[in-house]
Predict the 3D structure of the following.
Amino acid sequence: MAHLLLLLTKDNNCYRQLLAQQQLPGLVIASDDPQFISKADIWLAEPALAKPLLPLSPALTWMQSTFAGVDLLMAPRLKQDYLLTNVRGIFGPLMSEYLFAHLLTHIRQLPRYRTQQTAGLWQALPHASLMGKHMLILGTGSIGKHLALTARHFGMQVTGVNRSGEQHPEFDQCYSLSDLSRVIATCDILVSVLPSTTDTKLLLNAERLSLLKSDAIIANLGRGDSLDETALYQQLLTKPQQLAILDVFQHEPLEQQHPLWRCPNAIITPHISAPSVPDQVVAIFADNYRKFIQQQPLNHKVDFKRGY
């Protein structure tokens, strides 16, 4: 049986070439002609591009998202009578590079040494290290686990938070979301890699943020709506020793007039901590497609009720 694949990405030609190399049996890759929106039974798609076209997709059986985050497809009134899979297991190393680049730059005071270099000043600054610091990671999936292992290589204590408090060997201890207010006060570094769900929306509100240490580091790398940005901004003003590392926001791109842009103890990047790499996405799709045609369970299936 032949299957018709619709590509909905910003680089369809790249994906088309990579998919051709896979030589997937029975797969026909549609052109970009809009007529195929209603005819394709499989989509390889970016959620933002797929969302407005879902009402026009009577033949859709399975969609492979090119991103990890699929919250745009979770709206209750959207079509949900298809199999949805996302991309997992490839973002942990990229997230670790991003996070620890910022942490090490801050902790080891590299910008100040660069300034001293331009002035020809040989002067040691007070020493600080990640070793012995307590990192609290919100989200214990594949990304959270990779961050935890990296942190442990630096001699850090690592605690995880998830929905149920399920324990994972990558962490020293895990707690449930209901315990967050109790454990947040003990951490030196708070990292959120949470998905966007009803349980995580504005989880980091003014009350919980106020419990953090006066010199805590906050990193939001998961979804922007887990963090109250207004409350964070107000707190950063009153606690100048805190640092926020922000790669995701409630509304993207972040408005030019948003005060966080001009906050000296905030680092802002445009959602680049872990981009989807086409060859890795295609490898995941190809593996799932072979399972699909053999009627086997697919990897990384999304639960519409949970939102991830």
The first strand starts at residue 3 and ends at 8. The longest helix spans residues 92-107. The chain has two domains: 3-87+276-293, 92-268. The mean pLDDT is 97.
